[in-house]
């Protein structure tokens, strides 16, 4: 962890990452309900919303779309990922180097670590290389910290999420992206474990506006520093409305009711 | 994806790759029906046809034959490949470096990725190295995107082909070479998933002229940008006739009937 | 082994490492009994005690907290570690490079080797790289020498601990951190096997003050050079009291009774 | 494939490699019938015969004996090999780098690839490194192309040998060393598949002079470019007589009868 | 093999290596009978005997003790080794680089290769790197050539030992350290197979003076060039007496009876 409040990834010390790596991780099936959501441009447009501090995409999407948005969007390059065709123990291919991410214009990097997978050792060593290279470029590092694999039964238990956020601190991530442990108390525990590493909630699958904002509010009340959201934004017909509400909750401290008005 | 319309791989934004790596991938059995087809020179001659934007061969063939054709043919160096003697999970040896491909004179590179194979992680990381090295030389990258392996039952379903073309976009390929999903609608889906990455159809095994041209026409009508063809050209006694027809369909927008005249 | 008495890791040739890598190795469960113990700052504060020669933490904790303590605490960077979510044969990810440890300000490094694990070969080769790189920076090397794995039944037998300390000598560690073999005689054997490599006891889980100090005294009487202690310090409500006692026993040769007064 | 007719490996475009790597590949058992054949000097002496274009040995033999023969013998450094104590899937350790081969004075290199082995991918990638490094030194590359492994039932069938020689062409070997497929027709097929890559027969175990020369003659008549011979030369009491006959058949186009006179 | 007679490893072309790597390979159990034998200084003292051409130790022992003996003892750095806690197929961790061995002051290097192990390929490739790096420093290379593993039933048969010494020659070792094959004839066979590579006997477990000297004498009579001895020297109360006798047998051609007087 190093101080990142002055980096483009943060606004008032908080973070709202708009993630759009689902075409790789989940495949086209995620775009079925709203076919136009397959188009990265639509999500880049959404990322121009002032609530969004950075857009998180894979290398190919970054190369193709970021140049048109470099004045209006900050780029978090997600450095690893795997298709859901993969049938092995949880693992993630490093598909972009830090050097190349910097060249494309990224102002931060993202990296998945599956603690507890049979590939944990290898992934942590790849994370080391990425994190140390990112330090040389002065780029903040966000860890997608998702315990998963043969030893994990329930990967959103409070204990698992607390461990996930601690791993991010111990291994040198500046931001820990973890799943919501189901309660404000669970998130408080995770936040305490992370020390100065900022904890942000992973948005997960699409829910109702209210339900989603309530979990975000709980995260903020628990001391979390924001959100990495994907489907709950770009699977909506009107991403802007929810981004307005998220801006209110995350950056302005609004209540869910107020944000929904 | 980066803009490649001005590269030698493209003509009017479209692509016709004449592939001749079958001696490695399939072995001499592919030449049985037409013994002279084993001779790479015959296919290099065919590649001088104006319809062909590049010839795709492995390193050894490139070294031996390209120097005599460098004024008349553009070289796509296929960087990986495997013999069909291989009995393991789908995988592909990187048998040529990008540095060497550039030295031999390649103006683009090709790389196979078997999404869903137990070797997906490794292949994607090898692809990363190749793609980033190719970027340094300014060489477009074509991904042979073929989901295959333990998790894949039907590798030409619409969903699989759409995922294949999305993987190409997400991982930074400039052209996605995918199998024909069986219909124009299936190809439209694949094309939408690829965004600005050009989707070209993989020619597959030899069929009749009409049948082949109909699938090519469907690809072009679906928004595909061309074709990578091998056996359907060089297994024919007269490659030129079919190349004339392909030129009409791909670059001149002709109907299949018109092209067959 | 090289002479390290003049290094910050030593005081009068003896060593007291305050270890705080449990958040990675054991997870938040270690902090349950005393929630404030999760906060690294609390242990950094404890490390300002004159009894402590160095604090041992992982990269992320070092980055976040060491800068505020660099005038009052010496940093031992622990270079590898694993979560207890890991279900494979004992192994440890190298999560920090020596170059980076030096840049963060470490004055010594720590490295776990699990002799007898199926990963022994790999870990010893990683240790080689770390030890030789540390030599270039002039940083002493502490081996967490813990025989463990398929071949090991009882990992605190005298023979196993003696082998553990000999491995540290043979492989070039300056300090061997080994478990207590249960008796002064066992520790004498381990000390003899280590030659000039300093043997320090690994503190283990929390016990009573008297019991703990008695084992430390036995280690010193056996020729050991000190202690690496974690939970027995920071899981106590008042770490200072025990550190005062440890200072008396380790650096002033006091009896346990005298130290407890 | 690059032009190598002007290299020391060739005489009038043809090749006669005297191979003496059996001490590694087969072990001392190959020397049992003729104990003095164990002495590399005896085979180096034989290699001074004008019929021999290069001697193929492993690094250690080259280091020890080549310096005394550098004016009279050309050195082909065989870069990989395995003892027959190895019980795994066919594989071959790369026991000499190209840099070192060049330093010792090699004028060409040799490399085994077992197509169809579970190690095919790895061996082909090692071959790539060797071939590309050899290109930098301007050293011709000879592939010992031996399909072998779990998928291979009969490794001297015509189809297998034809595939073996094609692999050599596709992967960039200048010379393909393949087993004799049992007939002139089979060898013609292999030669056609290799294009400009020179196909030479692998000598195999010792037979009668006539039988051996007949197969060599068949190879030359089939368009083969020569022979890599070991045991059929150095297991003979008088290597010179057979080398005289081989010179006649390979370089002078003599009939077997004429060569045997 | 390169000429090494003028190197510190040799005296009149012969070699007597005093090996003391047992603390790593066997563990403290080897010191049980004579506790003071655990102290490396005692063996370094023994190594000042004029019969000893070099002492063979692992990195850590070399770092700690060699500086005090550098004027009186020559250092052979053993570069790899494994604890006997290891339960896998025979393998050996490379625990010291050649660069570091040279920096510590080694005048030769030692490296174990287990021919026939499932790790043979990997070990031979590691040997290649070590041997070629040693060549750059001009350091002679000694191969501990011990066929061992799944395919090996009797690893001291004449055939196995002959193969072991041949492997050393073929792979570029300057000295082959092999086990005694049980007879002078067996050793003669091994010596013939090694060509100019010097064959030295591996001392093995402790026996009587006479029995040990008789095998050494047989080795010398068989054309062997010396001995690598460990336990038969340092497990003796008076190492000097046996070293005197070994000097007589190895360097002065004395009979066993004369040497024992």
From TrEMBL, chains A, B, C, D, E:
Enzyme Commission (EC) number: 4.1.2.13
Active site: 146 (proton donor), 177 (schiff-base intermediate with dihydroxyacetone-p)
Taxonomic superkingdom: Archaea
SMART domains, per the entry: DeoC (SM01133)
Pfam families for this protein: DeoC
InterPro entries named in the record: Aldolase_TIM, DeoC/FbaB/LacD_aldolase, DeoC/FbaB_aldolase, FbaB-like
One GO MF term attached to the UniProt entry: fructose-bisphosphate aldolase activity
Family per record: Belongs to the DeoC/FbaB aldolase family.
This protein's name: fructose-bisphosphate aldolase
Organism name: Halomarina rubra
Organism classification: Archaea, Methanobacteriati, Methanobacteriota, Stenosarchaea group, Halobacteria
């Amino acid at each position: 962890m190093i101080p990142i409040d002055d980096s483009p990834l943060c606004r008032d010390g908080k973070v709202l990452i708009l993630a759009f790596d689902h075409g790789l991780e989940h495949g086209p099936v995620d775009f079925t309900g709203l076919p136009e959501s397959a188009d990265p441009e639509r999500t880049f447009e959404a990322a121009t919303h002032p609530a969004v501090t950075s857009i998180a995409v894979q290398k190919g999407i970054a190369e193709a779309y970021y140049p048109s948005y470099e004045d209006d969007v900050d780029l978090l390059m997600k450095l690893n990922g795997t298709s859901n065709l993969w049938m092995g123990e949880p693992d993630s291919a490093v598909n972009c180097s830090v050097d190349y991410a910097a060249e494309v214009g990224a102002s931060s990097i993202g990296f998945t670590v599956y603690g507890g997978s049979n590939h944990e050792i290898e992934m942590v060593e790849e994370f080391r290389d990425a994190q140390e290279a990112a330090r040389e470029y002065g780029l903040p590092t966000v860890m997608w910290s998702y315990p998963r694999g043969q030893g994990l039964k329930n990967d959103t238990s409070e204990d698992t999420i607390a461990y996930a956020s601690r791993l991010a601190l111990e291994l040198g991530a500046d931001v820990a992206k973890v799943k919501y442990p189901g309660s404000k108390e669970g998130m408080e525990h995770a936040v305490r474990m992370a020390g100065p590493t900022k904890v942000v909630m992973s948005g997960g699958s699409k829910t109702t506006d209210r339900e989603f904002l309530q979990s975000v509010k709980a995260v903020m009340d628990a001391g979390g520093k924001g959100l990495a959201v994907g489907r709950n934004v770009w699977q909506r017909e009107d991403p802007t409305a929810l981004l307005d509400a998220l801006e209110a909750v995350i950056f302005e401290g609004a209540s869910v009711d107020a944000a929904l008005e």
